[in-house]
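Field log, afternoon session.

UNIT: design team B
ACTIVITY: writing a sequence onto a fixed backbone
BACKBONE:
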């Protein structure tokens, strides 16, 4: 980014650099990067000639962050001994204290100089985990990349699991099926009782 190294602009650049590092998830580098770029821009504001025009650039590599400031003055700054209580002359000393490395060089075209510093990018900690840990904790699908068709090697000294005794299953005896009763012969119909009326007595008629 190009700017005039004025006090109001220096604070704005510091906030922009901080926001960019936060976007890159490099929060541990925000404070040293903001301090370093502030000191370099302050040197431009105090010492650069003929003007205060400069360019700030930040470059992220795999393990290194580089912050550089380029201005129009070809004169290289010098690291000088300073009074510990002094408020001036400590810019490059602070940059050297917070950075992994730093340096400067004149531009090949003679149009000024570049002052830069680097910061080491923190590496994330990696923890190796067994691919079977999550699978045995209640997951219903095997983890990706695990071939469950291969036998699992049991460490030496691990007792074999005891066989599971399965009690025999007794089927209940079939209930006896009652044979149908034979059809009984039809009982003879009861004999009809015929009662005969005795003939009425005839009276004798005398003639």
């Amino acid at each position: 980014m190009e700017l005039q190294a004025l006090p109001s602009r220096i604070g704005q650049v510091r906030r922009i650099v901080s926001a960019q590092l936060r976007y890159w998830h490099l929060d541990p580098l925000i404070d040293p990067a903001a301090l370093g770029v502030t000191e370099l821009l302050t040197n431009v504001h105090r010492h650069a000639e003929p003007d205060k025009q400069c360019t700030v650039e930040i470059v992220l590599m795999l393990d290194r962050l580089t912050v550089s400031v380029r201005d129009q003055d070809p004169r290289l700054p010098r690291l000088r001994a300073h009074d510990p209580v002094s408020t001036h002359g400590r810019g490059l000393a602070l940059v050297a204290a917070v950075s992994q490395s730093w340096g400067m060089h004149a531009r090949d075209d003679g149009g000024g100089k570049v002052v830069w510093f680097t910061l080491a990018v923190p590496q994330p900690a990696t923890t190796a985990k067994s691919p079977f840990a999550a699978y045995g904790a209640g997951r219903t699908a095997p983890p990706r990349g695990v071939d469950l068709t291969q036998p699992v090697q049991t460490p030496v000294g691990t007792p074999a699991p005891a066989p599971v005794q399965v009690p025999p299953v007794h089927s209940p005896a079939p209930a006896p099926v009652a044979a149908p009763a034979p059809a009984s012969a039809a009982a003879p119909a009861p004999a009809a009782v015929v009662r005969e009326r005795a003939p009425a007595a005839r009276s004798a008629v005398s003639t």
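LOG NOTE: The radius of gyration is 54 Å.
NEXT ACTIVITY: expression trials, pending approval
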